[in-house]
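User: I'm designing a mutation panel for histidine kinase and want to avoid disrupting the core. Could you give me a predicted structure to guide residue selection? Please restate the sequence first so the numbering is unambiguous.

Assistant: Good idea. Sequence first, for numbering, then the predicted structure tokens:
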Amino acid sequence: MNDAPPQSADPNASGEKNAPGGLSATPSGLSDLYRLLVESVRDYAIFALDPQGHVLSWNPGAERFKGYKAHEILGKHFSIFYPQEKIDERFPWKELEVAGREGRFEDEGWRVRKDGTQFWANVVITALRDATGQLVGFAKVTRDLTDRRRAEEALRVSEEHFRLLVEAVRDYGIIMLDPDGRIASWNEGAERVMGYTAAEIVGQPLATLYPAEDVAAGKPERELEIAARERRFEEEAWRLRKDGSRFWASVVVTPVENHEGALIGFAKVTRDLTERREAGERALAAARRIAAEEAARSAAEAQASELRTLADRLREQTEELERRNREAEEANRAKLDFLRAMSHELRTPLNAIGGYAELLALGVRGALNGAQTDDVERIRRSQRHLLGIINDILNFARLDAGQLTYDLVDVPVADMLDDVVPMIEPQASLKAIHFGLEPCPRTLRVHADRAKVEQILLNLLSNAVKFTLPDGNVSVGCEAHDGVVTIAVRDTGVGIPADKLEAIFEPFVQVGRSLARPTEGTGLGLAISRELARAMRGDLTVRSVEGRGSAFELTLPRA
């Protein structure tokens, strides 16, 4: 700005009325176009100050943000807009001093409205000088950024909760890497497992944690290449501690991408399995030793003694199997308890994010512009996506632990399709996909758990819509033969490579049937669906031709 917007004055006055410091408070000398421009702005507070900081002009945006009418504020010192602690620090006068010396001052901070409430503001103060270079006043532009700051603070708090959760994990080394493989973060578990403090290791290459022969073979770089290409790398191998000792590690590496799909780093989880490996080796050596002793003794014993020995060994093995089964059950329970706890800890901040985003979208904090609306929707989509991943993992853990129960009843197939199809049709319509429901006899029933069958069908139909291009076809129908009912979901989508038809039913495996974008999800949907089907004495199979489409067939016992 080169001048300050003036206040209206008597048009019949014979000369200009000058405010202290030499800045005119009348419209004389300013163009009507410029005056109308300033007075029409409502999203910015624009006003002029004399050299001492007294308010000379006041536009509608200033009235809207700060609550003062023009006649209430003109002539008042602009320090009235600052919290008391800033006034005590002489901050308003320091702003004018910097603007006068450097020509411009910009800051973000809390400001005060007429009613005493505070708002977060972006402030720009520009010095105004006459033709001789004499300071005649200041132009000040203020913008209300309160909503943006609150959204940023909510996101910061959520990220801090997640960071504290990761740092608190002691049994797993959780490491973040930059795209070049340098260590960017290091939790307490990583320090316990590998011996380095965060101050010692952050910024170092990943190769620091590998034996020399693996570094020479390029193994660290190859692992990251595989993780980036296949979305996951997992192995058990030797790793190196700070003191030079080796430990047997279980390692999982996954790529981390931003919302645009660009690689921004990797997440690596490491667990020390040395004790388990050594225990296994000791057990194997003991088993071999016992077998050798038993063979030598059996050769010298009578048939009765041999039978007695065999009986003893059988009893011991039975007891060992029972003990291992108990340990496996306890491990499953511990795993499920851990996943439940992690689910709760992650859901709490995610639900808070969803709640804040919903409030912002509803306009509780004020109307949003287009960019803000897009940002809030992006937050909501990410929050829903993360909750879905957590639910998938928890459901799979329950299934894996055998804790699911089944309410097997005789249920009409058509009734289940009536429940599921309306949930899928809007998705198909949005993608301009032709959706077809083939006739299914109302009398045809299956003996199954209705809720779990509908869960399977919803997963199959959602996948079919997701991987079918616009103007493609998705259909569902049923038929019965030999005491079995088959419900088939067919699509004309991208299809599945022949060598991957069984892999898609494995947990955490994603074949990558992407439509010019990364595949979302955990890779658990089909694995869960097949296990549910088999638990109900049915099955889930697939036929597919890459580039032409797929047909998933759910078979269940006919009632």
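For picking mutation sites, this is relevant: The chain has four domains: 32-144, 150-272, 278-400, 409-557. The chain has 16 helices and 16 strands.
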